[in-house]
Amino acid sequence: MSKKNVLLISFTAFLLQVCVLIFGYVGFDSCYKSLACQEWVINPVDVIINYIFVLVPVFFLSLITYKMRDEVYRMWVRFSYVWIPLSMIAIFFAPAYSGDWMYPIDKNSIAFLASVLFIVISLAIIAWKYIAIRKIR
Fold it and tell me: Are 2 and 38 in contact (CB under 8 A)?
């Protein structure tokens, strides 16, 4: 994928996340009163929001790599090609609700942990490759 495509797709996911968050604060109050609204709006949004949450850091990291050399971008994209599907699979198999009070593992916590790890590892890869390229040239 080109830098521009990754930026556009991740920006779309970012905007979708922002819209869902705004709708959550404004529209969900009235939606909880209607059973049909709960089934057709809230339940799908609860499922989709975790997967979109993983894609939001991609937008910020693609902004960082957009003006960098192509080698840095390619290294980060190769990592992203592996990490994002693995994160989504982990979110899919995580339980919807945690039964343990001490170690609450559910879809939300897995999505948050995957996003944080993705950011930390991506920044390390970008910095490492950027410094390595600068030393060579």
Answer: no
DSSP per position, 15-31: HHHHHHHHHHHHTHHHH
89's tokens: 């699979």
For residues 64 and 66, what is the distance between their CA atoms, to the nearest angstrom?
6
- The angle at the Cα of 65, spanning 60 to 69, to the nearest 5 degrees, equals 175
Cβ within 8 Å of residue 130, ≥6 positions away: 68, 69, 72
* Cα–Cα distance for residue pair 131/92, rounded to 1 Å: 36
C-alpha span between 49 and 127 (Å, rounded): 29
pTM of the shown model: 0.76
Collapsing DSSP to helix, strand or coil, 14 comes out as helix
Q: What is the residue type of 137? A: R
Is residue 54 within 8 A of residue 118, CB to CB? The reply is yes
Cα–Cα nearest to 55, from 7, 90, 94, 95: 7
Cβ-contact 49, 15 below 8 angstroms: no
pLDDT tens-digit map of 5-24: 888 888 888 888 788 777 76
